Write the C-alpha cells for this entry.
Amino acid sequence: MAEPMKIRATLQGDVADVRILMMHPMETGQRKDAKGEIVPLHFIQSVVVTHNGKTVLDAQWSQAISRNPFLGLHVKGAKAGDKIAVTWTDNKNEKRTDEVAVTPGS
Amino acid sequence: MLKLRGGIAAIAFLCLSGGAYAADPLAVGRQMLADDNPGDLWAQRGERLFHEKRGPKQASLDQCDLGVGPGKVEGAFAQLPRYFSDTDKVQDLESRLLTCMVELQGLTREDIVKNRFGNLDRMSDMEALVSFIGSKSNGMKMNVRLSHQKEYDMYKAGEYIFFRRNGPLDFSCATCHTENGKRIRLQDLPNMTDPKQMQAVVATAWPAYRGTQSTVRTMQHRLSDCNWQMRLPDLGYASDMSVALTTYLNRSGNGGMIELPGVRR
C-alpha cells in the first residue's frame, strides 16, 4: 500500500507555496538485489496537482527522479482554504491522492 | 549581482561564526530540507504502526510504557535511556520498543532484530517507530536523569567505553571525537567533550534521514557503524554496550533542543 504524502501549502501574498514529499522506491531498473537479480523498473510516471479541481501542474516523470521525491511549486491566485490535491500514478498503475487546504502564511 | 553578494556575505559569516571548528558545509542544505525532510514520512508511518494491532497477540503499542506512562509518547525520547523496573534494566528507545513488541505484541526478538535496519528492498518498522517517537519530543530539551544507581552505572560504563582504546586499530570513540575540527574525508566530526556540540548532535540525530541511504537511521545503527569503522566485532543490537554509550552520549547532550527526525548525509 502506498504511504500518504506529506503536503504543505502556505500562502505568501496571493501565491501558495506548495511542498510535497512522496514515499516511493523509484527503482531505476538497474539495481540488483541481494540475490544478484535485477530489480524491475518501478517509478512514478505522472504527477497531477490541482487547485480547487483545476489542474495546475501535470508532470511526466522518469526513473531519473530520486527515491522518496520532493516536489515544490507555486500556485498563483490561491486563497486560504483552497484545496490543493496531488495525485501520482506509477508504472505499475498504483495511485495515491492526497489533499490539503491552503493555510494562511505568517 | 545583489544576490551573489549576499551569498558571499553569508559564506563569510559562516566562516567567522564557525570559529573553533570548521563551518558545516551541509548546514545550508540541511536548512533547506528542515521543513521538507523525507524523515517525516517515516514518522507518519511510525505513528500508524504504533497504533495498529499487530503480531500474534493482535495488540497495538498503546500500552507500551516508554518511561512517561503507558502509551504516552510525548517527551519519551527526551528522557531516554532510563531505568525500567519491569525489566530491571536501563533501556534506550530501541531496546525498550523491542521489549514492548515482544511482550505486548508477541513478535519474536529474532524477527525484529533481523529487520532492525531497513535497506533498499524492505523497510524497517523499527526505524519508522523511532522516527515517530523521536518527533513527539520536538521542542523539548534533552533531559536524561541519572537518578537510579543503574542509570549512573550505565553512564559511567559508557564513559569508560568512549575513552577505551581497543580492536586491531587500537581505536576508541575518543580518537575521533575529542578534538575540534576533526574530519573523516569531508565529514566534520563533533567534539563530544564539548557540551554545546553534543547538544546539537544528540537533539537533531539520531533518528535522522540519510540522503545517501534513502532511509531513516537510528542511534543503534550509528553506533554499530562506528563499531564497524573501528573494526570491532559487531555491536549487538540493543546490547548493554550500546545502551551504555547512548546513556553517556545522550546525557552529555542534556539541554539540547530536540528536532527530530534530523537530516544527515
User: Anything to note?
Assistant: Chain B has a mean pLDDT of 87. The longest strand of chain B covers residues 82-84.
